[in-house]
Structures are given as structure tokens and as C-alpha cells.
Amino acid sequence: MKIAVDAMGGDFGPRVTVAGALQAAEDFRVEVLLVGVEELIKKEFDRSPRPHARVTIVDAPEAIGMGEGIFSFRKKARSSILVGAQLLKEGAADAFVSNGNTAAVVYISRRVLGAMEGVNKPALALLVSSLQGLTLLIDVGANANCRPQDLEQFAVMGRAFMESALGLADPRIGLMSIGEEDGKGNDLTKEAFRLLETAPIRFIGNIEGKDLFSGKADVIVSDGFTGNVALKVSEGVVETLLSMGRHEITKNLLAKVGFFLMKRNLKKIYRKLDYSEYGGALLLGLKGGCIIGHGRSNPNAVRNAVRLARDFVANRVQDRIRTEIGRARQATGGI
């Protein structure tokens, strides 16, 4: 298996991506194609004690910055994101991982790879830890404007992913809204609710923001705007609580003793909340496996993004989504 990794992506560029990719190649025994400026990647090779045997450099002399707009994407014909997507399209790579500009990765991947037949809009899906295991949020930022049919497709794709990748039979699907009652929400969620009720899925109704991590649903469906806001708010709350906790611990001796006694359990909780443990979000619905990591990703996050890509390919998630979308179109007369 070959996983292409955008070496230039993220806030820290090759310093982080190369370290994480080398670690992933060693830990998961996959071939990694590092896509980016060759001389910068080689410098990071020189700094790392890890073996390079499973890692190949694919030169891409241009990089798209985290804050660049759509016109920059079009001008840079040899950017690391574009070259990585082309490797996937040509079959030289089995999946593509990037921590780069999310808008650029979504736009370029759609343009180069195209959407799967029957999928209107590929969606970003992110696994998060909940009280009952893992929950998939879809969409978390690829599509700010959606139609009810798009949310129905997101639900079908989310169901297919949870069944094929995690082995979860008949996952519970919830719709993000402002209340649990059937009639709550805006025009989009009300109409999506109606469609999801008749879709070939286990739809459990509306889910409120407070249930994001409760485990009430295995898949939570949302438009990309709402999903991204909910995710960013959650990240902010977690970071704030951790920061407040560290501050309180240093206040007195008893707090320090308590922390020492609870340190092992607190580490377990932190790992469940740490985004780097989950690698990144999957861009489901493309003709190819694409994973988009957090801009602030550390080497561990890059490593786990490669693991997520490996599992996506090994579990044949693409085939399952294609089958489920086809089945849903037949059942509903086209979604």
C-alpha cells in the first residue's frame, strides 16, 4: 500500500509532516510518498534517526499557504496538494493525506478526482471520542451550503463508513438541529428530517449540540457550516478546560498531590480528547481516499492520519460507500 503525504501542509510544514510520515512508515509498514520541495524534505531526513527505506520523495516545487484563496490554487500547477491528488488519480498512491489549506485540498481533490457516481457533494467526516466509543461527524467543513438531499447522502456515506471501517452494524444516525423535537430546525433540517425518515438507514431523529459527545448517535449529520462551528466550539472548550485544570493544579500542594494520584487516569482522558489521536477528517464521496489533517498537527497526528488512510483502503470503504449510495438511490428513486 502506498500513501501520499503532503509534506508542505500544516502550520509547521516539513518539520512536522516528514517526522510523522517516517514514523508511520516504520510503525505501519506502508510505503509513503512524501510530496513537496525535495531539498526541504531531504533536510528533515538528515535530522531524523528513523529509516527512510519505505519513504520516497516526489518533488513538488510549489506550496499553497494556509491563508491563500481559490485563485492561488489555480495558479500553482505544481503545488504539493495538486501533485498528491494526481498521484491518487493515476493509481500511483492508494490514498492522499494533507494537513494543508482545507479549502485548497477540498477544491483540488474535487477537481482532480471528481465525486463518486451518485454523490452531489463530498463531505468531511471526523471521528470523535464519545461516552460510548466513537461518533462520526459529517459534514465538518467541506460544504457551507447544502440541500436536504446532500444531508441524506452524508447519512448514507457515514453509515457505510462506520459499518466497513469500524464494524459497527446498523449505526444510529442523528441529525444536528436546535431541538430534539421533529419539527425543530430551519427549512434545511426540517426537509432533511423528512428524507432521512424514509432513507434505508437507522434514523433516530434530531440531535442537539449538547449530545455531540454523549454517544447518543453513532453518526451525526450536519451541513458543513454548522458542523464546523460545533467542532471548533468543542475544541475551544476542551482546550480551555485543560488550561484551567493546569492552572488550578499549580495553586497549592494538595492539588499537586491529587494530580499525582490521578495522573494515569487523566492521561487516558486527555488521549481520548486529543485530536492528534484521530489523525484527521475523511473526505468521503470522492473517487479516492483523501484525509485532511488539522493545520496544527504534530508528528503524532500525521502518523495517525496515515494509519487512518491505511485503514480506509484496507477496509474497502470506497466500495462500501459506492454500494450503499447505489442501494439508497434505488430505494428512494434517486437521492
Secondary-structure map with pairings?
Elements: E1 2-6, H1 14-28, E2 31-36, H2 38-47, E3 55-59, H3 70-75, H4 80-89, E4 95-98, H5 102-113, E5 123-130, E6 133-138, H6 148-166, E7 172-176, H7 187-198, E8 202-207, E9 219-221, H8 224-249, H9 253-273, E10 281-284, E11 289-292, H10 299-314, H11 317-332
Parallel strand pairs: 1-2, 1-4, 2-3, 4-11, 6-9, 7-8, 7-9
Antiparallel strand pairs: 5-6, 5-10, 10-11
What can you see in these coordinates?
- The protein has an 11-stranded mixed beta sheet, sandwiched between helices.
- It has 2 domains: 1-119 and 285-315, Isopropylmalate Dehydrogenase; 120-279, Isopropylmalate Dehydrogenase.
- With 335 residues, the protein is α/β, with parallel strands linked by helices.
- It has helices at 14-28, 38-47, 70-75, 80-89, 102-113, 148-166, 187-198, 224-249, 253-273, 299-314, 317-332; strands at 2-6, 31-36, 55-59, 95-98, 123-130, 133-138, 172-176, 202-207, 219-221, 281-284, 289-292.
- 49% of the residues lie in helices and 17% in strands.
What's the overall average pLDDT, rounded?
87
Number of domains: 2
The poorly predicted ranges are: none
- The name of the CATH topology of the largest domain is Isopropylmalate Dehydrogenase
Query: Mind telling me the CATH class of the largest domain?
Result: Alpha Beta
Number of strands: 11
Structural class of the secondary elements?
alpha/beta
SSE succession: EHEHEHHEHEEHEHEEHHEEHH
Shape: globular
Tally of individual helices: 11
Order of strands in the sheet with most strands: 3-2-1-4-11-10-5-6-9-7-8
Work out the oligomeric state of the chains in this entry.
Answer: single chain
